[in-house]
From TrEMBL:
<dbReference type="Pfam" id="PF00583">
    <property type="entry name" value="Acetyltransf_1"/>
</dbReference>
<keyword id="KW-0808">Transferase</keyword>
<protein>
    <submittedName>
        <fullName>Putative acetyltransferase</fullName>
    </submittedName>
</protein>
<feature type="domain" description="N-acetyltransferase">
    <location>
        <begin position="1"/>
        <end position="143"/>
    </location>
</feature>
<dbReference type="InterPro" id="IPR016181">
    <property type="entry name" value="Acyl_CoA_acyltransferase"/>
</dbReference>
<dbReference type="InterPro" id="IPR000182">
    <property type="entry name" value="GNAT_dom"/>
</dbReference>
<dbReference type="GO" id="GO:0016747">
    <property type="term" value="F:acyltransferase activity, transferring groups other than amino-acyl groups"/>
</dbReference>
Length: 167
C-alpha cells in the first residue's frame, strides 16, 4: 500500500471509493463540506501496486480546542477489507497529525476498533460534547491532552451527519 496526499485528479476515484464503502454519496459530500469550510487538516489516499485508490483517511481541524483534529473519514475499499489496511491508515494518519502539530485527535467511533490504534475512551472522559459522547475517543499527542477538561466544537459540516454516519 502506497499512501500519498490527495490531489485534484483524485476526485472521481475518491467519490467512487466513498460511495461504494458507505453505500451512497453522503461521505463524499461531507468531505466536500469540510473542504468548503476550510476545516480539512489532512487527506491521504492509499493506492495499490497498480495505482488504484483503495483507501482514504482524512482529519479536520476542530473549532475548539484549537490545534486539535478530528478523524473524520476512514474508508477502505470493500474488496480490501479484513487485511489491516484501516488500522494502517489510522496509524499513518496519526503520525501525520503529530508531524503537523496537532495536539490531540478526536474520533467518534467504535471503541473496540479505535482503542487498538491508541485512541482512548478514558482519555476522553472529561471532554464535554453534545455529539455522541458515548462514542467519543481521544488520541492524546501533546502533554496534558489526555483527561483534559475541554469543550469540543466540531466544524459546521458535522451538523449534517447522522449517528449512522458516525459509528
Amino acid at each position: 500500500m502506497h499512501l500519498r496526499a490527495l490531489t485534484t485528479n483524485d476526485e472521481l476515484p475518491l467519490s467512487v471509493l466513498l460511495d461504494s464503502t458507505f453505500g451512497g454519496p453522503d461521505m463524499y459530500r461531507f468531505a466536500q463540506a469540510l473542504r468548503d469550510e476550510q476545516a480539512m487538516a489532512m487527506e491521504r489516499v492509499a493506492c495499490d501496486e497498480t495505482g488504484a485508490m483503495i483507501g482514504y483517511v482524512c482529519c479536520a481541524r476542530m473549532v475548539a480546542p484549537e490545534d486539535w483534529w478530528v478523524l473524520s473519514i476512514l474508508a477502505v475499499s470493500p474488496s480490501h477489507h479484513k487485511r489491516g489496511m484501516g488500522r494502517e491508515l489510522v496509524v499513518r494518519g496519526m503520525d501525520c497529525a503529530r508531524r503537523e502539530g496537532a495536539k490531540a485527535v478526536i474520533v467518534i467511533g467504535d471503541a473496540r476498533y479505535f482503542s487498538r490504534v491508541g485512541f482512548s475512551k478514558l482519555a476522553a472522559s472529561h471532554l464535554e460534547t453534545t455529539m455522541m459522547p458515548e462514542h467519543t475517543l481521544l488520541y492524546p499527542i501533546a502533554p496534558g491532552t489526555g483527561m483534559a477538561h475541554e469543550t469540543l466544537i466540531y466544524p459546521d459540516a458535522y451538523a449534517h451527519l447522522s449517528e449512522d454516519d458516525l459509528v
